Amino acid sequence: MIRIERTALAIAAGLAGLLLTAAAPRAQETETEEMANRARLLQTLPADAAKRHFGTVKAALPGAARTIGSYAKGCMAGARALATDGPTWQVMRLSRNRNWGHPHLIQLIERIAKKAPQEAGWRGLLVGDISQPRGGPMLTGHASHQIGLDADLWLTPMPARSLSGGERESMSATNVVAADWMDIDPARWTKAHGAVIRLAAEQPAVARIFVNPAIKKALCRESTGDRDWLSKVRPMWGHNYHFHIRIACPDGDGACVDQDPPPGGDGCGKELSDWLAQQHKAYFGPKPPVSIDKKPPKPLPLSAMPEACQQIVLQK
């Protein structure tokens, strides 16, 4: 898995070089932007595209919870929706219908939210994308989040009031990374940010947490006492507005393809330095030429998904 994560570094760097010619990563699109993007995509998306099928299903498939395939190529049945409001959480971007997950993940989010005020000084969670009702590839956004075991938690604490529907669709999460992408922004980053990420990482059910390399740098610098939890916190492109939690395949789910555990150590050495250097280069180094002849990859057809996923998404 070390090899895979190093490959991810190389891919991320290449992707960054292509994407950063215009602007920095944004927070989640507003409802208006998201719906416009979906409408444009659906006009040209092949009828057999897997993301067309999974991205337009409105409800979960009833029954026992099952995860099939991998984090970036799979699906789920028996998903549970996180309630849009809880004592210490609120779900954002409700129009996306992405507050579905494996029951184990939903229970974990609720536990973290319950502990956050007292143990991290974090009033509550604003929850971003989890997964679609039956998982699978999404019309917009994530490559992962396909099997109900991933969730994005905003780097903005829950306010002391219930947000309106309009606010949940339009307000931005907080970018806590500095303009040079080499460290956090001290005007926005607080001890509570580090504390809530640590709280999540210390939950036994959490296998990985993805954060921007600049955030990992701050966590490495500020961590005191036991540092074992830092091994779960992995640097990854983007993730400057939210942190991404991932749990392992549930016991007994033989069709779920898991990852190896993260490598040992706190991850605060050369690997992190390499991520920071690549990120900085992507923003401020020479930009690669853009080929006008290169065609985008064809969308994954439904037939390329695991057979069980084909059945799950088509079942009424």
Description:
This protein has nine helices and eleven strands. By secondary structure, it is α+β, with helices and mostly antiparallel strands. It has a single domain (2-314), classed as 2-Layer Sandwich (Muramoyl-pentapeptide Carboxypeptidase, domain 2). α1 (2-19) runs parallel beside α8, α4 (103-120) packs across α6 and α7 packs across α8. The chain is globular.
User: What is the name of the CATH topology?
Assistant: Muramoyl-pentapeptide Carboxypeptidase, domain 2
- Name of the top-level CATH class: Alpha Beta
CATH architecture: 2-Layer Sandwich
- DSSP summary: helix tally: 9
- Quick one: overall form? globular
Average pLDDT, all residues:
92
Percent of residues in helices: 25-40%
N-to-C order of helices and strands: HHHEEEEEEHEEHHEHEEHH
**Strand pairing plus helix content: what structural class?**
alpha+beta
Radius of gyration: 19 Å
Q: What is the CA–CA distance across the termini? A: 38 Å
Any idea how many domains? 1
Strand order, main sheet: write it out.
Answer: 8-11-9-10
**Contiguous uncertain segments of 5+ residues:** 10-24
Strand content: 5-15%
E-strand count:
11
Largest β sheet strand count, sense and barrel closure: 4 strands, mixed
